[in-house]
Amino acid sequence: MADPVSQASSRWRDLDKLLLRPGNLVGPNFDPGTELRDDLQEYAKVLVVGAGGLGCELLKDLALMGFRNLEVIDMDRIEVSNLNRQFLFRLQDVGKPKAEVAAHRVMERVSGVDIVPHFCRIQDKDLEFYNKFNIIALGLDSIEARSYINDVACSFLEYDAEDNPCEETIKPMVDGGTEGFKGHARVIMPGVTPCFECTIWLFPPQVKFPLCTLAETPRTAAHCIEYAHLIKWDEVHGGKPFDADDPEHMQWVYSEAVKRAELFGIPGVTYSLTQGVVKNIIPAIASTNAIISAACALETLKIATSCSKTLSNYLSYNGLEGLHTKVTEFVRDKDCPVCGPGVLLELDTTTTLQKFIELLEEYPKLHMSKASVTYRGENLYMQAPPVLEEMTRSNLTVPLFDLMGKIPKGIVHISGTATKNDKKTSCTRKLRVLFKVIDGDTDMDTATGS
Amino acid sequence: MAEPKTKYDRQLRIWGEQGQAALENASICLLNCGPTGSETLKNLVLGGIGSITVIDGSKVEVADLGNNFMVDESSIGQSKAKCVCAFLQELNDAVKAKFVEESPEALIETNPSFFSQFTLVIATQLVETSMLKLDRICRQSNVMLIFARSYGLTGFVRISLKEHDVIESKPDHFLDDLRLNDPWPELQRFAESIDLNATDPVIHKHTPYVVILVKMAEEWANKHGGCLPSTREEKKEFKDLLKSRMIDIDEENYKEAIEASFKVSTPRGISSRLRQIIEDSSAEVDSSSSDFWVMVAAVKDFIVNEGGGEAPLEGSIPDMTSLTEYYVNLQKIYQAKAEADFLAVESRVRNILKRIGRDQDAIPRTTIKTFCKNARKLTVCRYRLIEDEFNSPVLPELQKYLTDEDYSVAIGFYILLRAVDRFATNYNRFPGMFDGEMDEDISRLKTIAVGILNDLGFNGSTLTEDLTNEMCRFGGAELHAVAAFTGGIASQEVIKLITKQFVPMSGTFIFNGVDHKSQLLLL
């Protein structure tokens, strides 16, 4: 048997070509050598968000690109319809948490890699959890979840006096997405390249059918299905919520849609279409997920090691008609409320925390309700869980100025519910708070000393 | 066993049961099961490909554990083909998986007829000499072939087969066929039955835009000597005319009509894309012609006769604001015309089959129907033999790639990927495999690459030093992420070829893992 040292070096024979040798087409401060590989394995921590089609691939790819410290977060359980692409899952795994099975399978096959699974919602983790990672890789299929993680990653970003991002506070993200034969991979360096919010127009909100069309002038099979799902269900079941995962509910919607289609002479209602429309199913295949995840994993390695140039900053892939790949360099929105220097809020030194939280609901760029407030990692007020709420409740009557150590300006993080496109979403924001100085009211010693 | 319909639900929504059946009937051969090959197959096995045969003569080494997910510590010293095959089988028990422990190079050399049993061969990590031989073998026995290669931060994917005809190309955006400026009598009559000046606001705002445009186009033509709006000013004027007929600012149907108003100006007759196909020499059919070309010949006859210069009507219409009754009637009118066109084409198909001495019913009705429905979207893909491309590339294209900055890295990698194989023939290893010979290897590789360019009549100085150095730095490494990328592309193309849906890539895809500005080179 070979000794462990030479075994390690021969195992990474291929990767070492990239990490141990100098090159001309590399990133800034590339410092090739065995130390680079060892540091990658020892110190680089990557969080994979989502253990679905992209997440499974990402975990495998990262483990085989030399990363050893991985964590994965996903709230879903394995379903039969995942098996055509989520290759870490087998039929007997159906019903088990995705994150746990995925982590287990990759660790089983790639020795030395450590993957910590988190079977929970992304909102269940606090900022501290997210802050411990060097890079966050996103394998998600929803705009809301991307927005949330983007908010979190950008909340760590700090700017210096000249409004330049402080490098050590940049939390890089690599994001992938697929739909059928199409997909994208992008690199987000908050403060440097556009964040998800800067280019939110890339994801236009889904168009919904007008209710009057559904009720009065249906024309397509989808109209009949949505009529049964959105109007008829409530009429008949008054109050009982519709559950898309309950086959009996789905069957009911389907048969109502068939009746309606017959009434109007509209063809095309099938059970499969009913599921597709009601659950807004996005078609997905293994190969596209593999392509997009591979691009994301490669970029993750480059961010961690500088072993090559990085994608700047958005790759789109379309395999429908021939094969088209395109790199677009999107630009930042200088006034982005998420990755910019922060929304500026001017307050009186007497403003209480309670009053401050109320102001957030009214503030034009925020419209945030039920906000929790943290300052430098300390919880000033938490809406939940009850224990924390009780612990922090007494702060509500205290002026924010006092809670922040009487400094003239500072950054607080708020998280709560914002209304976007008539939809409530949870989000976090960074606020630059500036206190109007009233003569003799500020203790300068405290301000400079903190 | 899982209900296949549920298991494959997310892909059935893309290629349907017919596409799935084609996959389940396909028999695939993989040459070399390093990460590039095994990742390609993984994506196909998950999707339920019929059978796979993995061919690789090597044993699993420690270095394989660093880039191949389908082997693990317990596999060391065993046949790589066997280990990879076992893992793939675990992914989907509906797939018939087998392996042959033999070197692909040897098999190509000694048993060329072996390949004729497969639907498609995926050849990964083959060097030039074996590629050229295999290409000829597969071309001769009519087996589809796809090459995939991962090399450091570059690689390529290239399809090779004589001809691939696509009926269901399913493009994302395609102009619908509404015949607004040339309505047939039934559509004309339907439009006439609706009064655009209806005083009932419900009717007015629920008159489908197809009817609005048919009538307004006619009105315009009557006032303009039979011509339709063609200049920018005229098109704008036409839109204003539409706007003037609105009786309320939020009439969605008129907004849709304004948005779709350009459709009245689309030229009549068939597209250049379809013209090229019907004028192809293969459309002169005989007993050896494929069903596809027999149907092309029938459509060609249809266009000059019953079609009056137009292709068979597709028959489907987009959703639009309308009373249910109007919409359903409109749908029926388009479908009836499509059915009539199909019947005309069908009888032409039967006549042609008879004429060329085949069974008149050799082509099923459903196939002809699908063909008619997709007549405007037909696609024919042809691929050169690799050897022809290497010996006589399309010079104007090559010239363009060598001078256009967008292509400089891709064409550089293309030449260097060929150069490393010649290097390997000379030195029995890839350049930069050993740290000690780096400098010598760089200049040796450069000489070979410049030689290749010179042979093609181009100056070797277009090749940058950076790229040559980078190629030696790669030292023949097969990185997992690069393999997963090229393997992913290869499997995507295999799916398109086997389902005969969507359009496969043309030319050679050169992967650029440095900044992801990959390119397709049409040489």
UniProtKB/TrEMBL annotation, chain A:
Q: Does the keyword Iron-sulfur apply?
A: no
- Record's InterPro entries? E2-binding, ThiF/MoeB/HesA, ThiF_NAD_FAD-bd, Ub_act_enz_dom_a_sf, Uba3_N, Ubiquitin-activating_enz, UBQ-activ_enz_E1_Cys_AS
One biological process term from GO is:
protein neddylation
What's its catalytic activity? ATP + [NEDD8 protein] + [E1 NEDD8-activating enzyme]-L-cysteine = AMP + diphosphate + [E1 NEDD8-activating enzyme]-S-[NEDD8 protein]-yl-L-cysteine
Would the keyword Ligase be found if you checked this record's keyword annotation? yes
Q: Name one GO molecular function term.
A: NEDD8 activating enzyme activity
Q: What is its EC number?
A: 6.2.1.64
**Where does the signal sequence lie?**
none
Matches recorded under PROSITE patterns = UBIQUITIN_ACTIVAT_2
Class of this enzyme: ligase
One matching Pfam family: E2_bind
**Which Gene3D superfamilies does the entry mention?**
NAD(P)-binding Rossmann-like Domain, Ubiquitin activating enzymes (Uba3). Chain: B, domain 2, Ubiquitin-like 2 activating enzyme e1b. Chain: B, domain 3
Q: What does this protein do?
A: Catalytic subunit of the dimeric E1 enzyme, which activates NEDD8.
Name listed for the protein in its UniProt record: NEDD8-activating enzyme E1 catalytic subunit
TrEMBL record, chain B:
Q: Which InterPro entries match?
A: APP-BP1 (IPR030667), ThiF/MoeB/HesA (IPR045886), ThiF_NAD_FAD-bd (IPR000594), Ubiquitin-activating_enz (IPR035985)
Report keywords, A-Z. Answer: Nucleotide-binding, Nucleus, Ubl conjugation pathway
* Domain THIF-type NAD/FAD binding fold, chain residue ranges per copy: 8-501
Function, in words: Regulatory subunit of the dimeric E1 enzyme. E1 activates RUB1/NEDD8 by first adenylating its C-terminal glycine residue with ATP, thereafter linking this residue to the side chain of the catalytic cysteine, yielding a RUB1-ECR1 thioester and free AMP. E1 finally transfers RUB1 to the catalytic cysteine of RCE1.
What Gene Ontology cellular-component terms does the record carry?
A: nucleus
UniProt pathway annotation: Protein modification; protein neddylation
Q: Its GO biological process terms?
A: protein neddylation
State the family it belongs to: Belongs to the ubiquitin-activating E1 family. ULA1 subfamily.
Compartments where located: Nucleus
The family database entries (SUPFAM superfamilies) matched by this protein are listed as: Activating enzymes of the ubiquitin-like proteins (SSF69572)
- Top-level taxon: Eukaryota
- Under which name does UniProt file this protein? NEDD8-activating enzyme E1 regulatory subunit
Q: Which GO terms describe its molecular function?
A: NEDD8 activating enzyme activity; nucleotide binding
Q: Name one Pfam family in it.
A: ThiF
